[in-house]
Amino acid sequence: MKTSATICLLPQLRAGPFLLHADGFGELGRTCGRAKHMGFDAVEILFDDIRDVRVESLRRILDDSGLRLASLSTGQATLAHGWTLIDPDPGIRRKARNFVKDSAALAEALKAGVVIGCMQGRIGPDRDRQETLSLLAGILSDIAASMTDGWVLLEPLNRYETDVANTLADGTALLERIGSDRCRLLADLFHMSIEEADLAASLRAAGDHLGHVHLADSNRGPAGAGHTDFAPVGRALGEIGFDGYLGVEALPRYDADTTARMSLEVVRQFFDSAAVYSVDFANTMKEVAR
After folding, report:
1. What's the burial of 271, exposed, middle or buried (CB within 10 Å: 0-12/13-18/19+)?
2. Which helix (H) or strand (E) holds 75?
3. Inter-CA distances, 231 with 238, 249, 266, 287, Å
4. What's the rounded Cα separation, in Å, for the pair 170 and 135?
5. What confidence tier does 273 reach under pLDDT thresholds 50, 70, 90?
């Protein structure tokens, strides 16, 4: 199974659920090298001002590190600036849309995904839900229409963060409104642990719509730090033929190296059926926790 590490370049989000942090673009090469050394195949990056990023510069960093770009996040613009794609203020909607379009253009150039999570925003009780969903679907449809090698990755979030798409079924319904084969779902196992009755069944139901998975435990710590049962999740992904990335996105309950080690051991234990490992998983977790 292909794996990716999240890298955040925004200092104000250091307490967020991201594996690695880089102090600006100049540090990105070193941080990508660290992700490769940890054992990851790709990275998911959160940039502050996407307009400052040049395709060839980023491509060179990835090539030098031996990594692929799995996706670009857009939620940092919501967390840092308050922008969402359905904000009642058309000026804020325009800023959000431009940020997503610029991110999508960069993702397209590198055959990667652009993630729409926090950018969904909130509809609230005072707006027409169907009209607002149509507005969001139209925006994402336009962005997806510009992509032939990249993807729009719609990430359902838990009820405390959005009221747009909370479950994979909600996300699938929104994809049907969008009507583009360049749109896929991003299944975050932490959000799913809050909203889904059965993680494995929801993943099976999502089927071909699934394009990316965020690997986190029930407490949003690294896989192995909570009570999520990853065995049925791994089986479900195998049954639907999932071939996207498993991205490590977890709160910094441990240092980055420990988080990476715990997460990748779960991948090996439950998701990578092509390899046989002699490591006893329970003993490994006990050792890490000491």
Report:
1. buried
2. helix 75-81
3. 11, 19, 9, 21
4. 16
5. low
Count how many domains the chain has: 1
Q: Which of 71, 9, 5, 1 is nearest to 40 (CA)?
A: 5
Q: Which residue has the tokens 């292909």?
A: 2
Q: Measure the CA–CA gap between 134 and 231, rounded to whole angstroms.
A: 37
Look up residue 20 and give its DSSP letter: E
Give the active site residues: 155, 249
pLDDT in tens, 146-194: 999 999 999 999 999 999 999 999 999 999 999 999 999 999 999 999 9
Task: Decide: 203 and 159 in contact? Cβ < 8 Å.
Answer: no
- Predicted TM-score (pTM) of the model is 0.92
Question: By C-alpha distance, which of 63, 68, 26, 25 is closest to 46?
Answer: 25
pLDDT at residue number 287: 52
Report the distance separating Cα 85 and Cα 123, nearest Å: 11
Please report, rounded to a whole number, the percentage of residues in the chain having pLDDT higher than 70.
94
- DSSP 8-state assignment for residue 209: G
Hey, what's the torsion of the CAs at 65, 58, 68, 77, to 10 degrees? 120
The alpha helices in 28-68, defined as continuous H runs, are 28-38, 55-65
What is the tens place of the pLDDT at every residue in 23-39? 999 999 999 999 999 99
Three-class SS state of 245? strand
Question: End-to-end CA distance of the chain, in Å?
Answer: 28
What is the domain range of residue 67? 2-289
* CATH number of the domain enclosing 166: 3.20.20.150
Is pLDDT at 286 greater than 90 in this prediction? no
Q: Which residue has the higher pLDDT, 276 or 101?
A: 101
